[in-house]
Amino acid sequence: MTTTLEPAADRLRQQKAWNWYDWANSAFYTTVLSVMFAPYMITVAGKAAGCVDADETCKRTVDVLGLHLASGSLPSYLTSFATISSAFVLPVVGSFVDRSAHKKWHMAAYAWAGALVGGLLFFLAGDHWQLGAVAVVVSSILAGCSLVSYYAILVDISTEDERDRASSRGWAWGYLGGGLLLALNLVLFLGHDTFGLSKSISVRISLLSAAVWWAAFTVIPFVRLRDYAPSAVVPEPGGVLRRSFGQLFATLRDLPNYPMTLTFLLAYLFYNDGIQTVIYAASTYGEKQLGFGTSVLIATILLIQFVAFGGALFFGRLAQTYGAYRSILWGTVAWMVIVVAALALPRKNVVLFVLVAIAIGLVMGGTQALSRSFFSLLIPRGREGEYFALYGAAERGTSWFGTLLFGVVFQITGSYRPAILALIVFFVLGAFFLLRLDPERGIREAGNEVPVTLPAG
Prior knowledge:
Layout lengths: L7 H42 L11 E4 L2 E4 L3 H25 L4 H16 L11 H28 L5 H28 L8 H26 L15 H15 L4 H31 L4 H29 L1 H20 L6 H28 L6 H14 L2 H14 L2 H7 L1 H12 L3 H7 L12
Antiparallel strand pairs: 1-2
Helix pairs in contact: 1-2, 1-4, 1-5, 1-6, 2-4, 2-7, 2-12, 3-4, 3-6, 4-12, 5-6, 5-9, 5-11, 8-11, 8-13, 8-15, 9-10, 9-11, 10-11, 10-14, 10-15, 13-14
């Protein structure tokens, strides 16, 4: 079992092994959560609700634990329930991770359990939506749990100066892997007649393929990563469960002692919510406001995935020169420009729409990758699981703010243009808190070394 950092060449091998988990789990997020699950669930739930044509918008309801929910809204409710539940589960998981000498086992166990449950989506058929509803909620929560361990491992296998490069490479691999499987699944879905398949079975195979991909590629980091002994663990009496909850409460009490860490969490809460909402709203805006058909939107989704691969690597290089903090701040400003540009897009102008999509891909990959690595510098040693759990909880517990604002503004104005512009407030607030953050102070307060790639202020 390793207790100290290895030589640089060994660390690089560990980082490359670590990157494979981004490749593995991204397929679940792209194929299942971003593209395939929601429209198919609406169709299946619509049949259960008695809709004549379940592929059309249906306002009939299904019964969920005594609640009558519109079949067309069911995927949104399920996703919201999973994200809010994760906000409560992840901090407890993080407390276990910090005390474990087997972080890779935690990561792999949650991943394989999530993939097993996610594979049950293959049986989402006919009008039997209940199994699919449970499967997507549980697999989403397990995916979040696996990421807590995965992010915590980054601190064990890299120095402060290596974090941005390692994280950026991981995000790039994630976008490439997720985009590759999504492209294959879209070929299967769009050409289902050519392959002698029904539309339904092509979607079910695609959902299953994401689970298989997730489970199979998790084997690589599991086999190649080493175990690392926990360090600087907060002493707590009692058994494992009591010690873990004790550490959680100690961390929450101690968080105000790290004001820069808390400031970054607030900044991330806002600008990441803006990012997620732009991604969520892009297809709706393109179809309903700009008049593009399905083929253009699908091509654009794939384009963003593959451009984000280059965007993550580009921002990683940018951070090597200007530091992660400045690069993230510039990224939030770029998001403001993108939102304003989207507002001004004319209807059915494919060229301008694609240019904005390219900009989204470039900035999306970079800001997400550097947020992970920069936050790792603000975490006190030995509390990586706890703090990355709070990082995930902050993201998941508030990720509905942007979609709520988008929907409310549309309802008031009747247009998606002011709705998309309203999202700029999240990037403005994110930049506001970033500007109030002293990165060097925050890193030193956490007891970490200030990277040479982080210029002052």
